[in-house]
Structure formats: C-alpha cells, structure tokens
Amino acid sequence: xxxxxxxxxxxxxxxxxxxxxxxxxxxxxxxxxxxxxxxxxxxxxxxxxxxxxxxxxxxxxxxxxxxxxxxxxxxxxxxxxxxxxxxxxxxxxxxxxxxxxxxxxxxxxxxxxxxxxxxxxxxxxxxxxxxxxxxxxxxxxxxxxxxxxxxxxxxxxxxxxxxxxxxxxxxxxxxxxxxxxxxxxxxxxxxxxxxxxxxxxxxxxxxxxxxxxxxxxxxxxxxxxxxxxxxxxxxxxxxxxxxxxxxxxxxxxxxxxxxxxxxxxxxxxxxxxxxxxxxxxxxxxxxxx
Length: 289
Known about the structure:
Layout: E1 4-6, E2 27-30, H1 36-50, E3 56-58, H2 69-81, E4 85-87, H3 92-95, H4 100-113, E5 117-121, H5 122-125, H6 129-141, E6 145-150, E7 153-155, H7 162-165, E8 180-182, H8 184-196, E9 202-204, H9 218-228, E10 233-236, H10 240-250, E11 255-259, H11 263-269, H12 278-285, E12 286-288
Protein name: Protein HEAT-STRESS-ASSOCIATED 32
Organism: Citrus sinensis
InterPro entries: Aldolase_TIM, ComA_synth, ComA_synth_sf
C-alpha cells in the first residue's frame, strides 16, 4: 500500500464531498478478520492512508466479543483520532436470551469500551416490534446511536394482519413459521417507527436486495429511499460492481457499507468519473511512485 499515491478525485460543484462528520455519502467499512496483530496493522494503514474517506468502522458478526477489551479500546481510540465512529455488528441477538437485563448490560459495556453505534439486526433478534422500539430508546438514552438492520424477507408469523398493521396494535405472537415472505412495506413501516423512536440510521441487509450486481432489486431500493430518504438509509454493498450501481443510480451521497478492502474503490466511484467502471476509475487515480 505504501508504494502508491492516492490522487484526490475532484467533485462537481453540486456534488461536493462534505467534511466529516457527514450526513450523506457515509462510508462504513467492515473490520478485517485476521489475527489481532494483523488486524491492528491493517486498520492502522487504512486510517493513515484513507482515514479521510472512512466514516465508520463495524466489528462484523460479533467479532468484538472474541477480542480482548484492551485491544478493542485501542482500535476505538485510533478510529476516533481519525473521526471514525465505531459500530457493533450482529451480537445483541445472542445476549437477549439471557433475560431482559442482558441487553441493558450489553449497551453499558459497549459504551464503556467506547463504541458509538449499536446495530440491531431485526431479523435475528426475533422480538416484537414494541420491544425493538424499546431497545432503540434504551440505546439512545445511553448516549449512543442506534442502527436497526432490516431484511426484506420476514418470517410469515411476524407479519400482522392488515387490520392491525396500520396502527401497530398488539397482536398475540403466532407460532414460529419456517416460511419467509417478501414484504417491503412492512420493512418501511417498521423502519419509520424506529426512526420516530430515535434511530439514527437504517441498515438494509444485502440479502435478496443488493447482494449481487446482476440481480439488484431496483424497485425495492427505490421504494426504501423514496420513503426513508438517502440520509437515513445505508445499504450493504458486497462488491465493487454493486457500489458502482448505487453511485451511478443515486450519486455520491448514498450511504454504503463495504469491506475494508473496497474503501478506496468506493471513494473513486464517488468522484467525477461516475460513468466509468470501477477498474478504469481506480487506474486513473493510483500513481505508482
């Protein structure tokens, strides 16, 4: 990485790249999954060379639960030095099985270590909507940011009848079904309620929506952005082609979650040459010393 110089891509006047902290055009990256020493070195290189392009760092899959507390605190400290917020990944769902107080203890532990954002994977939590909203408020009351994560596929037993859906009335939980059905309207309604409860961002799971560039669900993405807005939504972009599709369709202000290896790729796509493929943009932006 040290053998390359990263040339800054200029932006059109109507597409200025805002300084951090940004409300639009947020890039959240997945933490590397190597040994502790290797992960620390990779993150240090990214922060030093590309820190201005990274808005958030997420410990995916509950990986932070397997790391020593001093290591996490050091990573959080280095991230904050580069104005990068730090988010948890999917882990809260494993703790709520220990009782109602377990989630509150989890929030306090995250705050103590230095996390800024707690992600709530709605599909994995499998909790009633009112409980989800209570968790969002609890996270906010602790002074942290809440980021519910939604998938477009719902367990059939979680879908309320039409007469109850509009007002979110209490519905006795049906036995768990093994069938999953697509319901973008339910996703949007629950996301809207989370935002009303204080959630800061809504993460959209890539599964069945935008995991593969060749099968992107443009209709679902358009409906979600149309109802929730660009500022409040973040999409998982699992590969550069998916990132390119989002940037070309919605411009550089779309919020994306990418792998740490795709940060510079994405930032180049946010630049002026939106019509080129990610390979050609990268080749015009890297200069070998």
